[in-house]
Amino acid sequence: MDRMDAENDRGGKVMENTKISSIQLFLLNIGFLYGSTVILSPAISARNDAWLAVILGGLGGALLVWMYASIALLNPTKTLVGILKDRFGKYIGTLIAILYIWYFIHLASLVFRNFGEFIATVTFPETPMVVVIAIFAALVLYGVNSGIEVMSRLSELFVPFIPVTALITSLSLITTRDITAFLPLLEDGLAPVLNAALGFVTFPFGETIVFLMVFPHLNKKENLKKITAFSVIVFIVLSLLIFFRCITVLGQDLLYRAAFSPHLTALLIPGANVEPLIDINLLIGGGIKISICIYAAAKALSQVFGIGDYRKLVTAVTTFSVVLSVWVYENQLEMFEWAQKVWPYYSIPFQVVIPFILIILSLKKGKIMTGNY
């Protein structure tokens, strides 16, 4: 018999049988953060100063992730839906929860489209994009229906390949580099760096708000802040490694113009074909990111509408995400423009405003309960 999460929808209290370990949550975080950032990195808009945008955005992202972890620790038995209902009241909390469900589904559809565009453009150019997305969706559907525990075990198996492959690829290109390609510093001033850093904060760090639907599964919640902090550090280092590899091999102009620069860089390795490894890495990160988003959306829907098993909703959520992914952009250029110019501002209410209010209300309630307020 499958292990199921019994949820008390009224109080949002999670009485769980399924638990994940600290290392599993860490690897899920790494896979999620890696996700589609290599395809659509907002930091690239800062051109040769993108490494500064990565660092500044990483610091801002660390603050957001710390805030999400703090919200979870202040409400250790509740998912995001339960926290919203508890802090905003049943009706307003439910309305905001429905908005988050849309946000999670929308995010899943965007990542579906990112990887559909990548595979249909680079790997299988003769295959219709909708077919690529549908096959990918079938794999995601199987993983989400298997439960968070299985998804976590798969992350243990696959996510370590991401940094290993990135390191191997970087070392393989060490003789073809122009180490001055990222100079001069701040050639276009600080404004482009700050704009790119804002994009990097919201994509991908702010998107980890979705993990408020996952954090209650952690078996040792006292490790939560350490896990999230370490995952942020590792991802920043990985992002810097990939950026410096790409810009020193491709140069500033080609890096900025190339649609999928990490893939292009891999093609330049002399005497070796590591292109499939890069593709697999992107599929691992994208698969984890989409799976977490669909899991969170289906779980939130089941809590909002009092459905006992979230699995009953997974197929419908996945299907809607696939349909939306095909419809959401008209072409690849629109996809890149949306990621850089629209997504950061569209995400701010979900990633910053509402979580900030939640942590204030949670701290206030904590003081009242302890008699210190």
From TrEMBL:
It is a multi-pass membrane protein. GO terms for cellular component: membrane. Its main location: membrane. Keywords: Germination, Membrane, Transmembrane, Transmembrane helix, Transport. It comes from the Bacteria. The chain crosses the membrane at residues 25-44, 50-74, 95-115, 127-145, 157-176, 196-215, 227-250, 280-301, 313-330, 342-363. InterPro entries: Spore_GerAB (IPR004761). The keyword Transmembrane helix applies. GO terms for biological process: spore germination. It is found in: Membrane. The keyword Transcription does not apply. Pfam families: Spore_permease. Belongs to the amino acid-polyamine-organocation (APC) superfamily. Spore germination protein (SGP) (TC 2.A.3.9) family. This is Uncharacterized protein.
